[in-house]
Automatic annotation (TrEMBL):
Pfam families: MIP. GO terms for molecular function: water channel activity. InterPro entries: Aquaporin-like, Aquaporin_transptr, MIP, MIP_CS. The chain crosses the membrane at residues 34-56, 83-104, 124-143, 155-175, 199-220. Keywords: Cell membrane, Membrane, Transmembrane, Transmembrane helix, Transport. This is MIP family channel protein. Belongs to the MIP/aquaporin (TC 1.A.8) family.
Length: 225
């Protein structure tokens, strides 16, 4: 149970710190282009991953993202039971983080829970494509940097966190950046409306991107190639 609880706590911190920063800086669909809000939100998500990677990485591997878990499953790094439990506890952790954030915002005059949605002028097709592409890149970085033989060793957590910062900088204008179904499910539940109606984009997109990255990494890791 230790690794499942680690995933729950790690995802809680990611959602609370990342989405909490987005709310505090008003990085919402109505103000998606302010440089300070975009950079601040991107750093919050990336630094949360770095912090948790070096806190619980030795216990669970610090997936804190169902897309990463799917990528690890499809690339043969974990079994189905562990993958299912990881995803369950990640979603639970996201709900805990969102509950805390919702409680704080409800008593402070702030609005929203940092939920994802198509940004102004972006179609659902465009948003889905963005989530597939950027999740593909992110999970590929994770699989590559954590590979036992080809990876970055102790620097993997830093590389993954910095790549998430970069992905947020590139993707926020399209979807608010999810690349993580758990991070989207819980905030959408509390925010409702458009966020809940478009939630399918932020589940299907990241899972498709993760599956593609697992396929590519299996080719890279194949000793016969």
């Amino acid at each position: 149970m230790k690794k499942y609880i680690a995933e729950m706590l790690g995802t809680m911190v990611l959602v609370l710190m990342g989405c909490g920063t987005a709310v505090s800086l008003s990085c919402t669909s109505s103000e998606p282009n302010l440089a300070s809000t975009v950079i601040g939100t991107a750093l919050a998500f990336g630094l949360s991953v770095v912090a948790m990677a070096y806190t619980v990485g030795g216990i669970s591997g610090c997936h804190i993202n169902p897309a990463i878990t799917l990528g690890c499953l499809l690339s043969g790094r974990m079994n189905g039971k562990d993958a299912a439990m990881y995803i369950l506890f990640q979603v639970i952790g996201a709900f805990i983080g969102s509950t805390i954030l919702w409680t704080l915002t409800s008593n402070s005059g702030l609005e929203g829970t940092g939920a994802n949605a198509c940004q102004e002028g972006v179609s659902m097709t465009g948003a889905l494509l963005a989530e597939i592409v950027f999740t593909f890149i992110f999970v590929l970085v994770v699989l590559g940097t954590t590979d036992e033989k080809k990876g970055a060793g102790n620097f993997a957590g830093l590389a993954i966190g910095l790549s998430l910062v970069l992905i947020h900088l590139a993707c926020i204008r399209y979807t608010g950046t999810s690349v993580n179904p758990a991070r989207s499910i819980a905030p959408a539940f509390f925010q409702g409306g458009e966020a809940l109606n478009q939630l399918w984009i932020f589940i299907i997109g990241p899972f498709v991107g993760a599956a593609l990255s697992a396929g590519v990494w299996k080719i890279f890791a194949d000793k016969k190639n």
